[in-house]
Automatic annotation (TrEMBL), chain A:
Single GO cellular component term: ATP-binding cassette (ABC) transporter complex
Gene Ontology molecular functions: peptide transmembrane transporter activity
Keywords: Signal
Domain of life: Bacteria
Source organism of the structure: Frankia canadensis
Protein name, UniProt field: ABC transporter periplasmic protein
Segments forming domain Solute-binding protein family: 99-424
GO BP: peptide transport
Automatic annotation (TrEMBL), chain B:
Main location: membrane
Keywords (A to Z) from UniProt: Cell membrane, Membrane, Transmembrane, Transmembrane helix, Transport
Family annotation (InterPro entries): BPD_transp_1_N, MetI-like, MetI-like_sf
GO CC term, one of those recorded: plasma membrane
Alphabetical list of CDD domains matching this protein: TM_PBP2
Name of the protein this chain belongs to: ABC transporter
SUPFAM superfamilies assigned to the protein according to its UniProt record, in alphabetical order: MetI-like (SSF161098)
GO BP: any one term: transmembrane transport
Topology in the lipid bilayer: Multi-pass membrane protein
Similarity comment: Belongs to the binding-protein-dependent transport system permease family.
Any single Pfam family the record assigns to this protein: BPD_transp_1_N
Compartments, as annotated in UniProt: Cell membrane
Record-annotated ABC transmembrane type-1 domain positions: 95-301
Amino acid sequence: MKVGSPWPTRGTRRRPPVMTSVAALTAAVLLLLGACGGGSGGAGAGAGAKGTDPAATVTIGQILEPSTLDITRGSGVAIADVLQNNVYQGLLQRDDTGTITPALASGYQVSPDGLTYTFTLRPGVRFHDGNPLTAADVVSSLTAVIAPGSTNPNAANLASLASVASPDPGRVVLTLRHRDTNFTFWLTTAAGVILRRGATDLAATANGTGPFRFASWRHGDSITLARNDGYWGARAGVAKVVFRYITDPNAQNNAVRTGQVDIGAIADADLINSYRGNPDFVVVRGTTTDKFTLGFNAARAPLSDERVRHALRQGIDKDGLIKVLGTGVRIGGDVPPSDPWYEDLTGIDRYDPAHARALLAQSGHPRGLKLTLTVPTIYPTSIAEYVASQLRQIGVEVTIRPVEFSTWLTDVFAHHDYDLSIVDHVEPRDLGNYALPAYYWGYDDPRTQALYQTGVQASSDKDRDDSFRAVARRVSQQAVSDWLLLGESRQVARSGIRGYPANNTSQIYDASKIVVTRS
Amino acid sequence: MALILIRRLGLLLVSLLVASVLVFAALRLLPGDVAQVIAGTRASPEQVDRIAHQLGTDRPLVIQYLHWLGGVLSGDVGHSAVNGVSVSGELGQKLTVTGPLVAAATLLGALVGVSLGIVAAARHRRRSGIVLSVLSQLGLAVPSFWVGLMATTVFAVHWRWLPAGGFPAGGWNEPAAAVRSLVLPVLTLALLEGAVLLRFTRSATLEVLHADYLRTARAKGLTRGRALLRHGVRNALLPVLSVLGLEFASLLLGAVVIENVFSLPGAGQMLVTDVGNRDLVKVQGTVLLVTAVILVVGFLVDVGHHLLDPRLRDAR
């Protein structure tokens, strides 16, 4: 789970009053609170076609800029979005539809007990600095993630990995503590990238094996990647890719309109609609795993009462919210339709305000309730306001408490000090959060935890899917959270550009297949 | 004069020291924790603690402050906790955008605001004076982000005369492109600045308009306009100069909004991001440097007063 809203907030700050003292100046600076978000959309096509310009530069408008280039240290999705698959690669990689393919490994074998993965390294791979990729690089990269004292923010992805060894220079053996049905998927995340052993200064530079070399980073503006002509695979279709970071939605829209960016991330429904019927642009829609989750603090009254949680869920008309925002897909649980174990759970806790009021009365709150909703300022205020106004109609008085995301991390995520919270859980395959008793929603259910472990350690895909499906259903039936909507990815691209990803464009933006048609 | 300079300089240093304490303390009141921001939501509480330990944010505040102050005194204002870049290096880079933006807007605003303010005062009973006065009110009332949005829509998106935002990749190595990208932001910021100064100049000039020394000057044969220019304006400019010094501080803050509207990679935008990340060492370093600049500007304004006003010079 992570930050990343497809709708950045609009800056509406008035001119500050004339400041005289140092204290007033300091206070004013402290008042300038950060705001932004990440998200996008996209469509794909083939690369390397005739009539394309291999010397072209493509500029991609994104919203959320990474705060560091160090993929082993920074937690934001924005780092992997620009660097993964483009600059850094893992043994395996996944595309925007979630299909996993070999990358730095040419193939792998799994032992029958599912505990040993033997990867064959792809020969002839070189890092951008010219050094050949060796088994020692793989061992050191993955060992660093799982080592005791590791500060890799994604270390939890490789929690099942016990050890990494290399029996001979061409192979690497990964030994697991227990079966992990998602293991190959986790290897395609930021936790699985392979760095040159002994690499330093990862925050300022990036030495990978991918189709692009890191060229430059202008803080607050853009990151430029240049084609790696010594790439082991199909060479990238353009010479340069510039990721330009524009937080203001109107500025992003203007950049698309005036050709400053070739592809822009535009979430606002009205802005998107203004491109309809314009032959110069293509509007690209895609899916995401952005689950806008209304979290309940089940560890304390009154939300520890399951009936109250059901009442809140039944009191919110999710279709109405999607209509207000002009975007989003209804989901009834934590699993998006793109996962194999998806099941339509929208029938659970259907919108029924009368029943919601009755449930509140039954649970000892005939005169309603007072609750606080803590919500990061990176999301459009309309979401929290909608939820509050819906809940008011079933007698729940909601006080909205807007906070910066950093404050949310401390107050809600770390200290569990909240009643209700809205956060966009961006990360894929995060159903396991409901099996963590220490997680911020205070949900400790041994049955759910056991079911989830059964799914993780299943010996067949069918068993895995059955178990995960059961977890998602159970969590929804117990109204652990409410899932307001699944975000959609939206991009506007200049006609004549093809090959860009359409889905999950704020997670991994693979630019290697982008081509520009010669005009 | 030299004594005054030395005294003012001493005051400047004391102010900076006080500022460093205030900045440091005030930032520590913010909720949130940079280690948690770096670690994100997949990391365990133990990982967060380890990161805090690496960064030194788990040490007592007094130690952290003294450590930072020691660095400042030896010329190192600090490094980002998030990505390790040096504060002065990055701020220097950002000021190549924000500096020209604020300087040009101040200059343009002062030029237009002060001269029109004098005109508005001299003609305060005539139609042109009233129109100027109303326009300045309007300039104050309209939010700058809205002006910026409208200007972009008209001049950049519709007519394509100027870029819609951003700064050229080569920075000032592409002088023409850099200047073009700053035209709309400067005009937007200068509009507000000009409106403020117009109002101040107008009222300051109106006050001196009926002063005895002006009547004397006219009695000696000067025309009304000449008397105003030679004797009135100099007196009227004293309060305006003070306002200009204060306005400089608020312009830096106004630049935050403008940089966002025009997606300029400037210091204001950087500060907003750093506060959001709770990169406190970077924020306090930046704020201290900006405070130093503002205090120096205040110092120069004082010196300017002494040059303009012989009474202050003699009074020591």
